[in-house]
Amino acid sequence: MFNERKAAQMAAFFLGQTSESRMSHLKLMKLLYLSDREALRVFGWPISGDRLVSMPHGPVLSQTLNLMDGDVESQPGGWEEWISDKENHELSLRQPLDAAALDELAPAEIDVLKIVWGKFGAMGKWEIRDWTHEHCAEWKDPKGSSIPIQYDAMARAVGFDDDSAKELAAQIHAEQEIDRIFAAL
Questions:
Q1: Which residues contact 91 (CB under 8 A, 6 or more apart)?
Q2: In terms of residue numbers, what domain contains 149?
Q3: What gap in Å lies between CA 119 and CA 88, rounded to an integer?
Q4: Structural domain count, the chain
Q5: Could you tell me the pTM of the whole model?
């Protein structure tokens, strides 16, 4: 279910909102996480399909963090096509953003990114980090380590009742399993 190209285009969208096409990796990660969270609230489905993890600086998208940090190899047309290597804790666009090139993102998903940018774009990296600590009930302090965040916990945190949250998480898990099976072929 994780779509590297889609995650890269989400990041490119946010980097393209800044005058210098760059921002701290901490702030960018929070914007990406909050976008998946908002999409889950609105559509019942995240945009990136990434694994969610609680880390000391708040909730993160695990596979996207690995790409940001250069810990995994990017797929052709994926992260490295869009986003430069991290330098001084910042990421930037490899080339000027052409909004028409964001072909993995549906118009409704871009609308979610615009909403998230409108609400959080003016925040600094520490302010947005603190906001996620205070307002993302699914995040738990991992005491220097990391803890998986389950989609049902995120769904409950954004207003789904327990039964709906469990059903939504089961659907996401089933989709992830199907993707794993096809990836192994």
A1: 11, 15, 22, 23, 24, 25, 28, 68, 83, 84
A2: 4-184
A3: 26
A4: 1
A5: 0.94
